[in-house]
Amino acid sequence: MTIRTEMERIVPVEGAYNIRDLGGYATREGRMTRWGAMFRADGLHRLSEEDKRLLEERGVRTVVDLRHARELESKRNAFVDSETVEYVHISLLNPATPGVREVHDLGDLYINLLEGAQGELRLVFETLAAAEGSAALFHCAAGKDRTGVVAGLLLDLAGVPHDAIADDYALTARCIAPMLEELREGRPEGMTREAYERYLESEPEYMLRMLQHLEATYGGAEAYLRAIGVNEADIARLREKLVGQSSV
Q: Strands 60-65, 38-41: parallel, antiparallel or unpaired by DSSP?
């Protein structure tokens, strides 16, 4: 991934740090993911009216908020009352919550999300599939963990190689650097500072471990989505949205 492509991928707004386009990734079939179809992001609570207009100009008409209820109360999504963008809230596991079974690091957490939030993930992918003819954006607080799992599944469904998916995940580290102090303020009670710092990392190995689990357990994202109840029509819509029809 070149610096030029990285800069094209990052959407510059004043009120967020980690809004990125999932377009421009080569697939194993020699195709390319579509620009302007799917966006991943961090929190949208600080977006200005100009920021919102910029995203709408890029075609965003669906926003999926993956945060939990307490996060919504303290940091209200800028699109909640939008008349032009559909706002959907689907709460996934809070990535900083201690006590989740067998979670020693972020790789474990992502696998836990795959296995423990299947109903919620089904709703996420059904919502993204329904956003036909327009762009969709999904996000959490930092745009790293919950968002990273959804992005990893989408890119795997599109046929993007695992190393490139891990690179996309790792790009988060550079994007969220300006908001690390704010994220540190969210350290849960009972979690040590040292332990919490590990949850702020974006090492490629964490995403690779999730993808390896996905492949070994299900045979990849398509089979996983089918296993959690996403129907064939929605899977086809997602693939079409991500990479278009095959020229073969």
A: unpaired
Give the H or E element holding residue 21.
Answer: strand 20-21
Helices 106-116 and 118-130, axial angle in degrees (round to 10): 80
Q: Which of 145, 179, 143 is nearest to 41 (CA)?
A: 143
Taking the model in full, what pTM does it have? 0.91
CA-wise closest residue to 188 among 177, 180, 197, 196: 196
**Quick check: 84 and 56 in contact, CB under 8 A?**
yes
Q: Which helix (H) or strand (E) holds 1?
A: none
Phi, psi of 29 (to 5 degrees): -90, 5
- For every residue of 30-64, DSSP letters joined together read S-BPPTTSEEEES--TT--HHHHHHHHHTTEEEEE
Instruction: Report the alpha-carbon distance of residue 166 to residue 156 in Å, rounded.
Output: 11
According to the model, what pLDDT value does residue 244 have?
A: 75
Q: Which residues contact 226 (CB under 8 A, 6 or more apart)?
A: 232, 235
DSSP conformation class of 26? B
How far lies 94's CA from each of 73, 91, 124, 155, 175, in Å?
14, 8, 16, 22, 20
229, amino acid identity: G
Find tokens 């704010």 and name the residue: 182
Q: What is the pLDDT of residues 222-238, one digit of tens each?
A: 999 999 999 999 999 99
Burial class (CB within 10 angstroms; exposed 0-12, middle 13-18, buried 19+) of 168: buried
